[in-house]
Design goal:
Layout (H helix, E strand, L loop, with lengths): L1 H30 L12 H4 L27 H9 L4 E6 L5 E5 L12 H11 L5 E3 L2 H4 L13 E3 H9 L4 H12 L2 H15 L21 H11 L3 H7 L3 E3 L5 E3 L4 H4 L3 E9 L3 E10 L2 E10 L2 H16 L4 H4 L4 H4 L15 H6 L1
Antiparallel strand pairs: 1-2, 1-9, 3-4, 5-6, 7-8, 8-9
Helix pairs in contact: 3-12, 4-6, 4-7, 6-7, 7-8
Length: about 350
């Protein structure tokens, strides 16, 4: 009897140790900081560490609103789905809204820094370029990637917007969020509302920069919809399409979007990476009269995936067999309120308190 009881106690202890190990893994995922430029300085060992872990499933708030892939029986389409490493991806004809390729388009995942598209877009139309934005302690203490803003110092809004869109600076996004909405959490609710108004119905945002957060999610389709509408704003398109820009405080900001010099026709795009999200990307490409929006999530070889998706898309627009079967996604053809304007205004104190 004593031996049997000892075995039972030992079994319980083993189960407890396994559970504690899984909890530690989950906490490590939640504490992961955003990395700069995926692939820029990554080693093979680092690449092997970005696989989505079982514990990350708890970070997803809900199931996708729409299911299924827009994959026809075309052999090239099937080959592309096997070739890319991304867990979800879309290729959209930006001129007509036709979905040329969709792999798990509505699967919710952590979006990483791709959500900074919304942060930058709101800030462009909420703040004057020369307006000074103070840096709180919380903003200054954000993890990398960052431009190392100094607590208590103020910076020009235009510089912080560029830092957000080009250098993916987490400290800049929080400073902007706090200036516009009073707090980052209030600003995140404003971001979610903005995404919904664009037609991104499966996007829920918890912070301004895409750092891993429980309940934060978007989808490949939503990222493409958001970027498609954002690129219709000339000021946003000009900034996101820049390779580098000088700031008023002595730094030169450089884009993380390699596609601008590696892929023909790149107009602008936003990269992202966290351990929970893996590599994420959304961007626009134009060749002649043809335009594409490409988005992917959960990739382990982002730039290879982007190149394959872009080349596939332009081949289809030149007369591929998929073109005739591609359906139009109404989210890409809808006209935003205010004749397509994406302008935002600075929230009043009353509006801030109601968020």
């Amino acid at each position: 009897m004593r031996a049997a009881r000892a075995m039972q106690i030992l079994l319980v202890l083993c189960l407890v140790l396994v559970w504690l190990g899984q909890e530690a893994q989950a906490r490590q995922v939640l504490a992961t900081t955003h990395k700069t430029a995926p692939g820029a300085a990554a080693s093979p060992a680092a690449t092997s560490m970005v696989l989505l872990r079982p514990a990350d499933a708890d970070l997803i708030k809900s199931q996708p609103g729409r299911a299924g892939n827009s994959l026809s029986g075309n052999s090239e389409t099937a080959q592309l789905a096997r070739r890319i490493s991304a867990q979800s991806a879309v290729v959209v004809d930006a001129r007509t809204g036709r979905m040329l390729f969709a792999l798990n388009p509505d699967q919710p995942r952590q979006p990483a820094s791709t959500i900074k598209v919304i942060t930058g877009l709101i800030a462009i139309h909420s703040l004057r370029d020369a307006e000074l934005v103070p840096t709180s302690r919380r903003a200054a203490e954000m993890p990398r990637s960052k431009i190392y803003l100094q607590q208590g110092r103020s910076y020009r809004a235009s510089d912080l917007v560029n830092a957000t869109l080009l250098s993916s600076a987490n400290d800049a996004t929080v400073a902007l969020a706090e200036r516009i909405a009073g707090s980052e959490s209030a600003f995140a609710r404003l971001m979610t509302s903005k995404a919904r108004s664009m037609g991104a119905t499966n996007t829920v945002l918890i912070n301004s920069n895409g750092l891993t957060a429980r309940g934060q999610q978007s989808t490949a389709r939503d990222l493409a919809v958001i970027f498609h509408h954002a690129m219709q704003d000339q000021e946003f398109a000009r900034r996101i399409g820049s390779r580098s820009v000088a700031t008023g405080f002595g730094q030169t900001l450089r884009t993380n979007n390699r596609a601008l010099w590696q892929i023909n026709g790149a107009q602008g795009g936003k990269t992202g990476f966290t351990r929970a999200a893996q590599q994420t990307y959304v961007g626009k490409f134009k060749r002649g009269n043809d335009e594409l929006v490409v988005a992917l999530m959960g990739s382990n070889s982002m730039w290879d995936d982007v190149g394959n998706l872009v080349e596939f898309g332009f081949r289809q627009l030149r007369g591929g067999s998929v073109l005739a079967e591609a359906r139009v996604d109404p989210a890409f053809t809808r006209r935003l309120p205010g004749s397509g304007s994406v302008a935002m205004t600075v929230l009043s104190d009353v509006a801030k308190s109601s968020l």
